[in-house]
Design brief:
Length: 249
């Protein structure tokens, strides 16, 4: 279980004229995520989605508040927590000079996966994500969709409990998107927890057990897609989104 209590995250931004000012990306945020669910995170640009995901993953530290994951806390238990988390963004950079296969082997070694298990897992993942045609190609030669599949494969290698996916299907063709969505649903069936940020509201509606809607650093709605639609008296999350967000200026 993941618990965030009284989280504040502040950044410094530079405006025209080189003037610096503070702004709150997240403000007094409280959130509990129970295990074994697909949790959708939606909101307009600048709502705080990526900041929230990076805090949970331990990439950023809050200015105030606490983050507890399976009764462990940052920074005291950072290494143990991170071994159970796979983080993926749509702009994750990979080593261009090595092959996809070499990257997956390196990932297994980094996470201390037993050597005899690494190739077994790579073979299983290759079948799931259909990597056969480009597994041994240099990463620099991969298409956007192929690159994202390798990123997903990288996350699968350590067999984590938690997946944190930040716009994982952004910019992908419909076939690649569906493969990744199928992967998310299959991992949930294995008891994994997936926190999934997306701008594709139809995706969130179709696969998420629960949706968290953020705006201006605060949670403005939380519940199953059907619950949120009932709250707004709308038929889909897209219409509910615009009803709840209102004026985005």
């Amino acid at each position: 279980m993941i618990e965030l209590k009284d989280i504040k995250k502040e950044f410094i931004k530079t405006t025209k004229g080189q003037k610096k000012s503070k702004f709150l990306a997240l403000n007094n945020l409280n959130l509990t995520i129970t295990d074994g669910k697909i949790i959708g995170l939606i909101g307009p640009n600048g709502a705080g989605k990526t900041t929230l995901l990076r805090l949970i993953a331990g990439i950023l530290e809050p200015n105030e508040g606490t983050i507890t994951i399976d009764n462990l806390t940052y920074p005291k238990d950072e290494i143990t927590i991170k071994k159970n988390i796979a983080f993926l963004s749509n702009n994750t950079k990979l080593y261009n000079s090595i092959s996809a296969y070499e990257l997956l082997v390196m990932t297994g070694e980094f996470y201390e996966v037993p050597k005899e298990e690494i190739n077994k897992r790579i073979n299983q993942i290759t079948s799931i994500l259909k990597l056969d045609d480009f597994l041994y190609n240099r990463i620099s030669k991969l298409s956007t969709g192929q690159m994202q599949k390798i990123n997903i494969a990288r996350c699968l290698i350590p067999n984590p409990k938690y997946y944190i996916l930040d716009e994982a299907t952004n910019g992908l063709d419909i076939i690649s998107r569906q493969i990744i969505l199928d992967f998310i649903k299959e991992e949930k069936q294995k008891g994994k927890t997936i926190i999934y940020s997306t701008h594709y509201l139809e995706e969130a509606q179709s696969i998420c057990d629960e949706v968290i809607m953020l705006n201006k650093g605060q949670i403005i709605a939380q519940g199953s897609p059907s619950t949120i639609n009932q709250l707004t008296q709308k038929n889909n999350l897209a219409d509910s989104f615009f009803t709840l967000i209102g004026d985005t200026k």
